Task: inverse folding
C-alpha cells in the first residue's frame, strides 16, 4: 500500500463565532481524487484553503510528502518553500479563472510562466511546450497569442488547467472548476479533467456542491455540513447508499434527469 | 529673514552618514534596493533628488564633478544641478569625462570608458524593475527576496510573441552578480554593456521612491533575454554629423519641417573631443 | 551647418529674472506683505503649514508670496526649509481636551457639556460674492465682544470620551511610555504601515487627494457609516520635557483642528459591539482636511475589521504612496524634462518593426 501523499489531522478553523472547520481528518494517496461536497456554508472551501496552505488552521496539522520522500508539516514550510511547491508540485484551479490566470498575458505566456520561473530560457521551446498544452486542453492552436480576456468561460478554465499542469504536479486542488459554466461546456470540461487525471496520475482534492461532478471525477468523497464531516467513503458507495440522514437528504435532493 | 549658511553640499552630516550607510549596504549586496529616508531637497522629486543626495553624501572638497542629462552637460537640468553643487560645495566642475572623479548622470552612460577611482551616480525615477508588472511594494519585496523573477521573462516572452522582438528599448532589466535583477535607470539599452565589468563604482539614487542601489567595480551585469532571442545593442544607420563617430549613441535632430533630419552624438563631451582631434589632424 | 544648441545656463538665468518680474507684477500695484497674507489669507497659510509639516506662520506666508500663490509650490518651499532645521526632540502628546476652543461642533448630540460653538465658519454663510470686499475703504467689521467670541468656556470633554464612558466606542490606547514613535521624514515608510506612520502620512497629505478619497467612501467605495463625533478648533499648548529640569514646559501655543469620526460599529473575537473611530488633525483651521483625513484613516483600517475592500480609499499602499503632493507634482512635472534619448530608442524600435512588418508583407506577395 502506497504511503499517503497528504494527511490532514484534527483541522479546526473558526471565524469569529463561526466554526468553519471542526476537527477534520483524512488522507489522500497518490493518484487519488477526493471530492469534498456540501452546501454553501458547509466549510468545504475553508477546508480546501487550509489544506492548500493558503490560510493557517487554528488547530491540527496538514502533512505533505515531497518528491524526495520527506514528509513536511505545511505550517513549517518557509514562504520560499511554499511558493516553490505551488509552482511545481501543486496546482490550484480556481472557480473564477481570472483569479488563476494573468488576464492580460497571452495564453503562451500564461502556460510558459511556470517554466520560465523554473529557469527555462529558450523562447522557441517554451512556446512549443505551451502550444502542446493548448492542444491537450483542446484550445485551438491559433489562440496561443491571445490573452484570456478574449476567451470564453470554458476556454479560460482549460487554460487555467494547462497553466497548472505544465510542470506535472502531483496534487491539484480544484474549487468548483465547472461552476458558472453552461451545462454542455461543463460536460466537455469534466471529460477533459477526467482524462488528464487518469493520464497524469494526478491526486486531486475537489470542492463542489454538484454531486454529479463528484461522481464523475472522484474516487472518495467527504460530505460536509456545518464545518463537520458527516459521512465519508468511496464516492460510488456514499452516493448510491448514503448512511447518514443528511447525506441521504443531499443525494435525494438532486433532481434526476 | 537672514540668509543661512548651508553645510558643505547642503545636507547635514548626520544625513550624509545615513545615506553613506545605505550606500555601503548597497555595495555589499549588489543590485539590491536599500530603503533610505530621502530628504526633501530644494529641487522637485523626480528631478534628480536621489542622485543629488548620493552625490552630496560622497562629495569632498577635492572632487571634480561632472553633471550630464541626456548625455549633455548643457541641458537645463544638468546646468541646474551643477550650479547647485557649485553654490553649496564650491567644488571644481568639468565637462571632461576623464577628468571627473564623480559623474552624476540622467539617462546616459558616458561614451568615454570609465576608470578605477571614478564614481558614476545615476538618477533613477522608478528603481523597481518589477513595478509595472506588480504595483504592490509588499509583493515585489517578496519576489526579490525569493528570487522569483519568472514574471519578468513573461513580459519579454509577450514582447516577442507580439512584436517578434523584445520591445524594451531603455531601462532594460539586468541581473547583477547572478542574483538581483535591477533596473539600470532609463538609459538606452545601447548603454547596458557598459555596466558589465566596469572599473568604476556605479551608484543609483531614487529620491522619491527612497531607494539606493549599487554595482561594485568589476561586477557581472547581464541583461535579461532568451537563448534564441539574445540581447542586441541598438545600431544606428548613420554616423554623427559633427564628428563622424559610428560607435556612439546618436540624437536625432529635426532640421526643417520638410522631414530633414540629422544625427549627432548624445554625449557632447565625447563628440567635442573627437571634433577637436579631427581639427588637429586636419591642421597637421 | 548644424551647430549643437548651447546656452542652457543663460536660459535658466533669464527664466529666473522673468519669474521675479512676474511675481512682483504691475509696479503700480502695492506689493503684498507677508503680514497681509498671514492675516487675511490665513486659511492658505494654515494649509501650507499643515502640508509643509511646519508650524510657522511667517515662513508659510513668505513661501506663499514667493510661490506667487501656488500653494503646492509654497508647501514645497516649506518642506525644503524644514529639512535644514536642527531637531531638538519630540514634544509631549498634545492634550486636545484642554484646548482653548474657538469652535466646537458635534453631529452626534444635540447638546453636550461645553455646548455647540459655531465660531468663525463659512458653514451657514450664503455663497454670494460680496462686492463690498472689492475696495479697501469699506469700514472694518467691528470685532465681536469677548463674551460672544471666545466665551467663558465651560468644561468641554471630548465627545469620544463621553461615548467611551459607556464603553460604546473603541478606546484609543496610549502607547507605552518611552515607546519609539515613527518619523516618516527620517525612516522610509514600509508596508504594512504602523498607525503612527500612517497618521503622519495622512496629516501632511494633499487635501484634494484625501477629499476625493473621503468622498468616494461616502458614495459606496468602502462605506464606513461616519458621524462627526466632534470637530474642535482652537489653541493648544505644546509641551516639551526638558531633561535638565526634570519636567515638561510649555514652549508655545498652536492652533489646531481636530476631527473625531464615529464610525460603524463592529464586534469581533468574542468582544461586544462598539463604534469604531477615524482621526484627523491639522494645523490652523483646516476642517475639510481634518474631516477627510479622519474618513480615510478609518477606511484604511478595513483589514483590521475584516471589511471587504470596495474602493481605493481602503488600499493602504495606494493611498499612502500617492498622498504626498510634493512627491506627486515632482514626478508628474518631471515629464517636462528632456526624454529625447529614450524617445530616440523607441523611435528606432518602431521604425525597425515597420521595416520588418514591410519585409514580411513583401515576402508574402
Result:
Amino acid at each position: 500500500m502506497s504511503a499517503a501523499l497528504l494527511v490532514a489531522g484534527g483541522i479546526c478553523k473558526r471565524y469569529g463565532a463561526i466554526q468553519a472547520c471542526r476537527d477534520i481528518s483524512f488522507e489522500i494517496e497518490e493518484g487519488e481524487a477526493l471530492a469534498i461536497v456540501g452546501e454553501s456554508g458547509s466549510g468545504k472551501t475553508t477546508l480546501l484553503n487550509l489544506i492548500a496552505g493558503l490560510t493557517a488552521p487554528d488547530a491540527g496539522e496538514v502533512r505533505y510528502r515531497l518528491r524526495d520522500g520527506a514528509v513536511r508539516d505545511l505550517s513549517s514550510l518557509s514562504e520560499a518553500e511554499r511558493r516553490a511547491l505551488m509552482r511545481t508540485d501543486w496546482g490550484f484551479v480556481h472557480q473564477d479563472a481570472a483569479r488563476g490566470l494573468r488576464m492580460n498575458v497571452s495564453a503562451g505566456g500564461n502556460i510558459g510562466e511556470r517554466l520560465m520561473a523554473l529557469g527555462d530560457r529558450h523562447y522557441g521551446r517554451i512556446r512549443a511546450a505551451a502550444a502542446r498544452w493548448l492542444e491537450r486542453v483542446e484550445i485551438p492552436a491559433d489562440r496561443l497569442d491571445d490573452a484570456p480576456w478574449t476567451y470564453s468561460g470554458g476556454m479560460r478554465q482549460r487554460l487555467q488547467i494547462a497553466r497548472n499542469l505544465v510542470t506535472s504536479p502531483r496534487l491539484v486542488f480544484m474549487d468548483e472548476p465547472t461552476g458558472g459554466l453552461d451545462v454542455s461546456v461543463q460536460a466537455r470540461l469534466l471529460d477533459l479533467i477526467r482524462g488528464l487525471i487518469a493520464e497524469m496520475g494526478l491526486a486531486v482534492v475537489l470542492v463542489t456542491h454538484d454531486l454529479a461532478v463528484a461522481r464523475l471525477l472522484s474516487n472518495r468523497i467527504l460530505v460536509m455540513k456545518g464545518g463537520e464531516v458527516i459521512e465519508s467513503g468511496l464516492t460510488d458507495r456514499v452516493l448510491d447508499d448514503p448512511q447518514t440522514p443528511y447525506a441521504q437528504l443531499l443525494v435525494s435532493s438532486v433532481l434526476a434527469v | 529673514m537672514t540668509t543661512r549658511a548651508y553645510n558643505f553640499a547642503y545636507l547635514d552630516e548626520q544625513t550624509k552618514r545615513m545615506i553613506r550607510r545605505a550606500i555601503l549596504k548597497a555595495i555589499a549586496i549588489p543590485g539590491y534596493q536599500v530603503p533610505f529616508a530621502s530628504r526633501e531637497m530644494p529641487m522637485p522629486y523626480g528631478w534628480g533628488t536621489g542622485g543629488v543626495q548620493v552625490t552630496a553624501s560622497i562629495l569632498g572638497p577635492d572632487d571634480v564633478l561632472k553633471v550630464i542629462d541626456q548625455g549633455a552637460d548643457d541641458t537645463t537640468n544638468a546646468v541646474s544641478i551643477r550650479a547647485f553643487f557649485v553654490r553649496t560645495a564650491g567644488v571644481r566642475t568639468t565637462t571632461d569625462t576623464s577628468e571627473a572623479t564623480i559623474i552624476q548622470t540622467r539617462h546616459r552612460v558616458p561614451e568615454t570608458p570609465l576608470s578605477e577611482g571614478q564614481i558614476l551616480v545615476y538618477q533613477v525615477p522608478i528603481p523597481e524593475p518589477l513595478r509595472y508588472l506588480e504595483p504592490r511594494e509588499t509583493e515585489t519585496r517578496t519576489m526579490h527576496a525569493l528570487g522569483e523573477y519568472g514574471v519578468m521573462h513573461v513580459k519579454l516572452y509577450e514582447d516577442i510573441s507580439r512584436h517578434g522582438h523584445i520591445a524594451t528599448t531603455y531601462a532594460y532589466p539586468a541581473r547583477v552578480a547572478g542574483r538581483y535583477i535591477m533596473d539600470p535607470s532609463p538609459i538606452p539599452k545601447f548603454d547596458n554593456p557598459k555596466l558589465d565589468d566596469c572599473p568604476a563604482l556605479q551608484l543609483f539614487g531614487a529620491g522619491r521612491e527612497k531607494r539606493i542601489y549599487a554595482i561594485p567595480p568589476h561586477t557581472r551585469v547581464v541583461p535579461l533575454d532568451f537563448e534564441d532571442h539574445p540581447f542586441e545593442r541598438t545600431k544606428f544607420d548613420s554616423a554623427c554629423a559633427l564628428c563622424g563617430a559610428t560607435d556612439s549613441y546618436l540624437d536625432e535632430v529635426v532640421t526643417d519641417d520638410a522631414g530633414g533630419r540629422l544625427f549627432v552624438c548624445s554625449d557632447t563631451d565625447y563628440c567635442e573631443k573627437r571634433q577637436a582631434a579631427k581639427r588637429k589632424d586636419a591642421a597637421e | 551647418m548644424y551647430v549643437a544648441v548651447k546656452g542652457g545656463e543663460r536660459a535658466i538665468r533669464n527664466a529666473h529674472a522673468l519669474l521675479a518680474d512676474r511675481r512682483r507684477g504691475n509696479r503700480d500695484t502695492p506689493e503684498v506683505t507677508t503680514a497681509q497674507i498671514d492675516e487675511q489669507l490665513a486659511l492658505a497659510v494654515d494649509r501650507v503649514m499643515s502640508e509643509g509639516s511646519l508650524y510657522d506662520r511667517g515662513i508659510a506666508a513668505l513661501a506663499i508670496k514667493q510661490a506667487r500663490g501656488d500653494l503646492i509650490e509654497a508647501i514645497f518651499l516649506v518642506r525644503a526649509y524644514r529639512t535644514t532645521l536642527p531637531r531638538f526632540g519630540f514634544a509631549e502628546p498634545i492634550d486636545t481636551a484642554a484646548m482653548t476652543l474657538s469652535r466646537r461642533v458635534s453631529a452626534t448630540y444635540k447638546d453636550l457639556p461645553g455646548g455647540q460653538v459655531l465660531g468663525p465658519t463659512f458653514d451657514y454663510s450664503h455663497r454670494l460674492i460680496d462686492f463690498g470686499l472689492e475696495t479697501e475703504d469699506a469700514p472694518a467689521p467691528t470685532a465681536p465682544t469677548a463674551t460672544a467670541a471666545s466665551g467663558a468656556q465651560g468644561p468641554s470633554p471630548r465627545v469620544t470620551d463621553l461615548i467611551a464612558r459607556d464603553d460604546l466606542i473603541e478606546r484609543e490606547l496610549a502607547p507605552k511610555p518611552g515607546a519609539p514613535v515613527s518619523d516618516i521624514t527620517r525612516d522610509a515608510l514600509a508596508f504594512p504601515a504602523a498607525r503612527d506612520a500612517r497618521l503622519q502620512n495622512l496629516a501632511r497629505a494633499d487635501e484634494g487627494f484625501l477629499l476625493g478619497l473621503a468622498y468616494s467612501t461616502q458614495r459606496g467605495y468602502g462605506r464606513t457609516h461616519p458621524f462627526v463625533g466632534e470637530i474642535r478648533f482652537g489653541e493648544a499648548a505644546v509641551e516639551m520635557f526638558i531633561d535638565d529640569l526634570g519636567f515638561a514646559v510649555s514652549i508655545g501655543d498652536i492652533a489646531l483642528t481636530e476631527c473625531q469620526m464615529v464610525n460603524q460599529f463592529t464586534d469581533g473575537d468574542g468582544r461586544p459591539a462598539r463604534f469604531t473611530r477615524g482621526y484627523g488633525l491639522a494645523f490652523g483651521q483646516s476642517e475639510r482636511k481634518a474631516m477627510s483625513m479622519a474618513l480615510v484613516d478609518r477606511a484604511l483600517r478595513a483589514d483590521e475589521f475584516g471589511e471587504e475592500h470596495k474602493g481605493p480609499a481602503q488600499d493602504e499602499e495606494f493611498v499612502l504612496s500617492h498622498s504626498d503632493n510634493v512627491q506627486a507634482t515632482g514626478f508628474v512635472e518631471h515629464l517636462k524634462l528632456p526624454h529625447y534619448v529614450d524617445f530616440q530608442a523607441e523611435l528606432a524600435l518602431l521604425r525597425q518593426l515597420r521595416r520588418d512588418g514591410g519585409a514580411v508583407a513583401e515576402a508574402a506577395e
